[in-house]
Amino acid sequence: MNQRQAKSKPKRKPATLEVLRAGIQTTVQDQGRSGYRHLGVAQSGALDAPALLLANRLVNNPGHFAGLEMVVGPIALRFSDASCLAICGADFDADLDGVALRSGWRVYAQPGQVLTWRGARQGMRAYLAVAGGIAVPEVLGSRSTDIAAQFGGFMGRALQHGDQLPIDVVAAAARCERSVGCLQRLWTPELRVLPGPEYAEFGAQAQQAFWQQAWGVSHQSNRMGYRLEGTPLMRAASGDLLSHAVMPGVIQVPPNGLPIVLLADAQATGGYPRIGVVIAADLWKLAQARPGTRFCFIQSDLAQAQAAQKKWQQEQYRLEWSLYGR
């Protein structure tokens, strides 16, 4: 081939996911951005981070690759190129050109095939990973969408009809020689919680109510935080608090006494008393709790929180070995 022929060779179009139906609040997320909370930047990222990590590993992506967080369907996506995909998290109703899909399994998509995700049957959020990852630009070290700040992800917003999401086919490693799957994490209605910095500012009656009642998820909840419904908790101490650092998992109690569990899009500082902190290993459960879901807080300690996190890491190692022998 001479130089002129080489120049005239048409360039290959980049692989894409075309959004035919966007659903509601469908966003690009990864494991979140860290190291910027001192600047007031939220962590963002998948609310059920373990589910996105599992989906990524099923298609042989590194765990930090970006995928889609799907909440309310119907969502329809057309593949421009052959690709592997996996969906983890909530149990769902979905198909690939009419062939039903199962949660936690890797499947192969042919060029032009359409994935339709109609919604969750149990749980609330599902995560789609595609071999190579959703290749939107990184912002502050992450591809996650921050809806409130309007940056990251795809144009800093939820997906819309007609969007074309780039896929990094160069990075794609899985070729789906065989169908593989993994068990999904079991959701239970208990969240292990460490007493927070202002726990002692609540009287014995409020402390007892915090641990013993079943809390409900309010319809006013969002990615910033889950507002809870139940018997209000009244703070015994008087006086205002100075603003202090907060993070995902912190449980704040505003003046109305109804707790708020902060999630991935939470602000960096707050002034409400922090009665508790959900341990990292249990925070994913809130992502799968629909409005009206009821659960209890279980008092935990630092050693138990560390043991739970270590157990989750061991589960990742076992998954890695079963899928790829490493």
Strand content: 25-35%
Give the tally of β-strands: 18
Total helix count?
5
Give the overall shape: elongated
Major beta sheet summary? 9 strands, antiparallel
Radius of gyration over all CA atoms, rounded: 21 Å
The poorly predicted ranges are: none
Mean pLDDT across the residues is 91
List keywords for this structure.
single chain, 326 residues, alpha+beta, Cyclophilin, 2 domains, 9-stranded antiparallel sheet, elongated, transferase, Cyclophilin-like_dom_sf, hydrolase, hydrolase activity, Biotin-dependent carboxyltransferase family protein
Topology summary:
Blueprint: H1 3-8, E1 16-24, E2 27-29, H2 49-58, E3 67-70, E4 72-79, E5 83-96, E6 99-100, E7 106-109, E8 114-130, E9 164-166, E10 190-195, H3 204-212, E11 215-217, E12 225-229, E13 244-245, E14 250-252, E15 260-262, E16 269-270, E17 274-278, H4 284-287, E18 294-299, H5 302-324
Parallel strand pairs: 10-18
Antiparallel strand pairs: 1-4, 1-9, 2-3, 3-8, 4-8, 5-6, 5-7, 5-8, 10-17, 11-12, 11-18, 12-15, 13-16, 14-15, 14-17
